[in-house]
Every structure is written in structure tokens, then in C-alpha cells.
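Hi support team,

I submitted a single chain yesterday and got back a structure, but I'm not sure I'm reading the C-alpha cell output correctly. Could someone confirm the output below corresponds to the sequence I sent? I've pasted both exactly as they appear in my results page.

Thanks,
R.
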Amino acid sequence: MDRRLFLQTSTAGIVDLVLTSRGSMFDFKTFRDKQSYSIVMLGDTHFDADPSVYHSKMTSPSNTQKAEFTRNANMWKTNCPSLVNEASNLIDESTQMVFQVGDLVQGDCGDGDVHKQMLTDAWNFMKPKWKNLPFVTCCGNHDVRGTNAQATYLNYMPTLLSGELDRSIINTNFCFSIGPDAFIILDVNKAVDDDLLYRMLQASDGARYVFIMAHAPFIPADIEKPRWLVLHGNDTTAENAARRELRAEFAKRNVIYLCGHIHTTEFLDWEGDGGRITQMTMNSVWDVIERGWYIVANEGISAYGQRHKNAVAKDSSLKDESALFAEYQPGVKAYSRSYAAGSYKLNVSPSGVNIELHAGNSSTVSHTFNVR
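Hi R., thanks for writing in. Yes, this is the structure output for that exact sequence:
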């Protein structure tokens, strides 16, 4: 097979199936039993340096931001370069691309030009590692955080992605296919363009596997504020209805949802609405040495929702979202959470899908998550 991606991209809100180099329509069923490949993946990376490099123009950073600047600068001196180097070692003849799930950079630059420099420096550090493979990233909240950061990202990143995918990418929501499988990339930082999203989902019908890649989880993460950045996450009657409708569309297609944002390695398999959604969160923020090991912090169906419950019990100012977890808990079939950071390898074949974690800079597989 030609290693060039068979692509499906969206332009001007209309999904066009452009799935071969000649632009002819692609019948997903044709290659249903023939194609196997891999994708090397990174979680959040928060590329950064000493605060004087990117953050000197930011006025009045909070104590939390200052702590993040220090964290990032330290981990990008040692841990993260070795993590990225190990990710490059995962590339083999089966690898079709490298994907990063958002928060490529820290942001918080205080100036649009500096933000562009941060994006450029992150790209120029990582791209040469990938052995001429396409490098694709989705938009994270830090990628558009700071003065003029969102406008800078929107003016800059789609151009880079267009070059990687050899197709016109005009915004931060787009889709493509590899062989018989559909990939939908979402920007969850702003109001969801439901019309475009549903068009992309409709276009994916007939795919062997449907992957959705976004920065934040879709099934609410077991954190203090579980609705944060969730698609249609606001707690209103209309938003809850829209979220459930979208969940049914995902389940109907047995979506595999790959994301980051919460800085954990977390696996959740859910069945409901007549189908299945498997969600995997990935993390490449290797800030302390212990994250270089795969150690399970919580595991089992009953564990989902307990972290939020305990947080509310300790802090009465937090909103109790127990009802949200109760909505999902009956359908949870598997759940595990680890604080591990590392690189990941998504392996796709006719017989199934799995994700291998290489914690820290480990050259061996730390854990394999069976997705399909």
C-alpha cells in the first residue's frame, strides 16, 4: 500500500469524500479485511521553556500559571525530549502518521507573535523526529490561551496541517481516512458546530472503525469539574439533550474516542444507546519521575465517579455532579486510571484495535489497552 494517506477532508462546512490521490470516491467495504497500520500518539505536551523565553510579555500571571511555567521548563530540559525520542522509535513500516491530542504548547505568552513562535518552536522540535510521516494535532485549550492566541492558532496551524495531509484544512474541525477507517478531528474549545459534526459522522457511515480525536474527553472524566470542555457539557435542558443525542450518534457508530486534557492515562469502555463508545485519554506531561511508570491508581467499574464524589465531600464549594456519573455508570464495562505519562502506539487491523503505552521513555510496552 502507498504510505500516503487516503484522505477525507472538510471544507466550508461541507464534507467532501476525497479518499484517493486521484480524488475518486472510496468504498470503505473494499478494504475491510485487508488493511493494518499503526499511529504513534502523544498526549498533552505543554511545550515550553524558561519563563523569560515565552512569558515575559504576559502581565500578572496567576500563581498556578507560574507553577506551570516552572513545571514545563523543568520537564522540557530533560524528561520530555527523551519521551519524544522514544516516540520516534515506535515508528515502523506500519506507521502512517503521528498524532498529538492538543495542548501542544503551554500558551500564556501575552503576545500573538510570541505565541506563534512558541507553536513554531514546538513544531520544529517534534516534526523532524517523525521520519517524514504526517504530523497532525488537534486544538487544545492551552493552544489558544493568551492574548491573540486563538487568532494566531487559527491563522497558523491549519496551514501546517494542510501541508501534512496534502489537502486544504481551513479550520480546526476536519476529517480524513486511513484505509477503511474514518478519523474526525474536533475542536472542543468553542461552541460545537453541530451541522459540520453531523455531516462528518454521516460521511463516516460504512467505515470499519470510526475514530474521533479531540483534546478533552466526551464521556465526562472523573475529575472535580467533569463538565469542563465536554461537548455540550453545560448543565441545561437543551445542552443535556444535545449531548445525549450526540452520544447516541457516537454509540451507533461504535466510536473510539481518543483525547487528553486531564493529564492521566485513562481507559473507559461504555455500552448504551444501542452501541459502544470506548474512550482513551493520553498524557505526555512527564513532570515527575513517578509518571514514567505505569501504576494503576483506580480500576474497576465501581471506581468511575468516586474521585469526584470524594472531592465534593472534601470541598463543599464544588458542584455535585453525581447525577452525571449516575447517567453513565450502568453502561461502564471497563475503567482504569493511571497518572502515567508517555508515548502511545495505536495498532489497527481487521482483527481489532489496541493501544500500547510506553511509560516515560520506556522502549518496552508498559501496558496494552484492548480497544476492539
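A quick pointer for reading it: The longest helix spans residues 149-165. Let us know if anything else looks off.

Best,
Support desk
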